[in-house]
Design brief:
The complex is a heterodimer.
Chain A (H helix, E strand, L loop, with lengths): L4 H6 L1 H12 L4 H5 L6 H13 L3 E6 L2 E6 L1 H8 L2 H26 L1
Chain B lengths: L7 E5 L4 E8 L3 H9 L1 H7 L6 E7 L6 E7 L5 E12 L3 E8 L13 E10 L2 E9 L3 H9 L10 H12 L1
The chains are: A mainly alpha, B alpha+beta.
Chain lengths: 106, 167
């Protein structure tokens, strides 16, 4: 199942996790020390973040380190810009269409 | 200074809407025709490099517009707009949805509601497109996180992103 990335980052704990691992890659155990929840709960949050590619895992010996994926976050944040471009592209064509409507009327 | 020719996009996070505003250097009668006649819509509705091709259109309350978005490599996405409320040269209210070539709506994608309002101001016409999205709550979160500043990504990525949000 694919995750809704917006749902994933709507959760305050998951945002805090992103904030921590954005500074440096961390293991689930190290992360759990920052939160008043179980290691299992932290792992569950990490799993959700990984499913929508906001974090990635890297095995180092016996430990798994979690990294932040800033490209993915930018992609989400830039939702508006391609949207605006799409409409502008339409309207540029529409400007031309409107010229033809005016000329055929005359 | 006139805002003519500029596409303004703003978000209303409380309403979960995006407002797209554009002013055209044409009388309202022409703009209305461009939004409501299939031959004209086909000439502009597809954002580059896509083109729109109408298969069926019944512009009336309860009617719909069935069209294909065709990419340069022939990729085709079918979509339909359902017209719910029409006030001539004033307002069109409806919803859009993905569908198949027969117009059967694809229920795995969300249906987006929209309201377009038309206003004439001494020869030019302003159209406001209010789009009601389901994911804007999430957008607020991103803004809070300070990632709003961005770079431009392609329409393909928007497609992919929207598809992922709805999966």
């Amino acid at each position: 199942m694919r995750r809704d990335v917006f749902q994933a980052i709507a959760d305050p704990t998951r945002r805090a996790i992103i904030g921590l691992i954005a500074i440096q890659a961390m293991t689930p155990n190290a992360l759990a020390e920052y939160f008043d929840t179980s290691r299992q709960a932290v792992s569950k949050h990490l799993q959700i973040l990984a499913e929508c590619e906001l974090v990635s895992q890297e095995q180092s010996g016996r430990e798994i380190y979690y990294h932040f994926n800033p490209d993915k976050m930018k992609e989400v944040a830039d939702f508006i810009e391609p949207f605006r471009k799409m409409w502008e592209s339409r309207f540029t064509k529409l400007d031309k269409v409107l010229l033809t409507i005016k000329t055929t009327k005359k | 200074m006139s805002s003519q020719g500029k596409t303004q996009v703003s978000r209303n996070l409380e309403e979960k809407t995006i407002l797209v505003v554009r002013t055209f250097n044409a009388p309202i009668a022409s703009v209305w025709r461009a939004y409501t006649e299939r031959e004209l819509l086909d000439q502009w509705w597809g954002p580059e490099p896509w083109r729109a091709e109408t298969k069926y259109m019944n512009f009336a309350e309860g009617g719909h517009w069935l069209y294909a978005m065709i990419g340069p490599d022939g990729t085709t996405h079918w979509a339909r707009m359902n017209y719910k409320k029409i006030v001539p040269q004033r307002l069109i209210e409806g919803e859009d949805a993905f569908c198949d070539e027969n117009g059967i709506m694809n229920t795995t994608f969300p249906v987006n509601q929209w309201i377009n309002t038309f206003k004439e101001n001494s020869g030019s016409t302003t159209v406001e497109h209010k789009l009601i999205f389901e994911t804007l709550e999430g957008l607020q979160t991103i803004v809070d996180m300070g990632f709003e500043e961005g770079f431009s990504t392609g329409l393909d990525q928007l497609d992919a992103l929207l598809a992922r949000q709805t999966a």
